[in-house]
Design a protein that fits this description.
Layout: E1 2-7, E2 10-13, E3 18-26, E4 32-39, E5 46-52, E6 58-59, E7 67-72, E8 77-82, E9 91-100, E10 105-109, E11 113-118
């Protein structure tokens, strides 16, 4: 089992910045990927950014150049720096870890943190 705890959401004006954190604990395998997803009301959950335990981050087109993700493997913590926020970035942001045990990938989710961007 893996537990994920997000923090850092809130209300910000358009053009502002927020930093999300996600602390992971439990049985974290050395081969894994961690990612940020978001879900706006009435929409499907979508991938925002992802980074593997030893790789470079990838971003969705709609955040590239504005958001940056990084991970601290020693602390099992994932970060998302969000700059130049837009009202359309308003959503619940979820952290996830895709844990690979050599045979299967098991995904765990955090509880989510609300990000609201006012115009």
């Amino acid at each position: 089992q893996v537990q994920l705890a997000e923090s850092g959401g809130g209300l910000v004006q358009a053009g502002g910045s927020l930093r999300l954190s996600c602390a992971a604990s439990g049985s974290i395998f050395s081969l894994n990927a961690m990612g940020w997803y978001r879900q706006a009301p009435g929409k499907q959950r979508e991938l925002v950014a992802q980074i593997s335990s030893g790789g470079s981050p990838t971003y969705a087109d709609f955040v590239r150049g504005r958001f940056t993700t990084a991970r601290d493997n020693a602390k099992n913590t994932l970060y998302l720096q969000m700059n130049s926020l837009k009202p359309e970035d308003t959503a619940v942001y979820y952290c996830a870890i895709h844990n690979y045990d050599g045979t299967y990938v098991r995904t765990y989710w955090g509880q989510g943190t609300q990000v609201t961007v006012s115009s």
